[in-house]
Every structure is written in C-alpha cells, then in structure tokens.
C-alpha cells in the first residue's frame, strides 16, 4: 500500500484499492449464500468507480490561489479614501514618493506579485495526459483563476501602488508588471481553448 504525505487522494486511492476492495470481495466470497442479494454488484461497481475517481483526482492540476500582499501604508490610504467616499490618490504619499526605502519596499512587493501571478499564468497542461473531462476542467478553472487575478490587478490597492511607483520614477516596475506577469497572453490562450 502506498501512503503519501503529498496527496491525500493517492492515500485514499491506496486504501480503496488495497484494503476496501479486497475486503469487500473476500466478504462476498465468504457469504456466498447471499447470491440473491441484488445490491452486491451495485456496491462493487460503486467501489470500482470510487477507485477510478480517486485516480483521476491525482492527475488533476491544482491551480494556486494568488494573494497579492499590499503595503500597509497603501492599505490605510485606500481605506481612508473609501471612508471619505473618494478615490485613493498618490497625493496622500507626497513625502514618501521621494523616499527610496518606501519605494524599494513597494517595488519588492510588486516583484513578489509578479512571481505569484506567474505561478498561474505559466501553467500548462499536456493534453495527452488525463481524460477529456480533466482537460476541460483545467482550462475552465484556469480561466476563473485568471479572471480573479485580473480583478485584483484593477483593484484600488494595486492601482495605487503602481501609481506611486510611477510618480517615484520607478517606471521599470510599473511597465514590467503587466509585461512580466503574462496575464493578457494567458487570458487569450485560455479563451482560445474554451472556445472549443
């Protein structure tokens, strides 16, 4: 029996394949006097389907959830603007736009965002592996994940962070954010697959 710390589905599959199925089959052989029991084939079929389903779950590719960690100063400025019913503005950061330590912290955060987003945008699936249903599920799940990332991209917190970097003349960080994430290209690829 193969017990895995990495995949609970692999562990469950091993239990069903090497423990539940043999136990059920041996129990049925011992109780051969219950030949008229019509539920035995149905239960055997369902155990077999469970085993196959657990095997398929092992082959699915998990799409990570992207969390963009926002700088506390940006969060408080957005909250303050929302409470006042206004749009967040770079004007709140007049002195900090010149502060290299603050700008470096923001730029470091944006670089982390790029890495997190790339974990999703660089995902691909080999059509030869798995079933057609898994292929369809992968592309639909990837599309949902990319749309969630896109919503985060246009959020006031992210927009304000990029605006601050732009005003601080950190153009490389702002330009590379959209270019390096590969979000547009990934969305286009997903849309092409989902048309089929």
Provide a count of the helices. 8
Q: What is the strand tally?
A: 0
Taken as a percent bin, the fraction of beta residues is under 5%
Straight-line distance between termini: 40 Å
User: Over all CA atoms, what is the radius of gyration?
Assistant: 26 Å
Write the element-wise H/E pattern from the N-terminal end onward. Answer: HHHHHHHH
> Considering DSSP H and I runs of 4 or more, what fraction of the residues is helical?
55-70%
Overall average pLDDT = 82
Regarding quaternary structure, what we see is: single chain
Q: What low-confidence regions span 5 or more consecutive residues with pLDDT below 50?
A: none
Structural class by SSE content: mainly alpha
Shape: elongated
What does the largest sheet look like? none
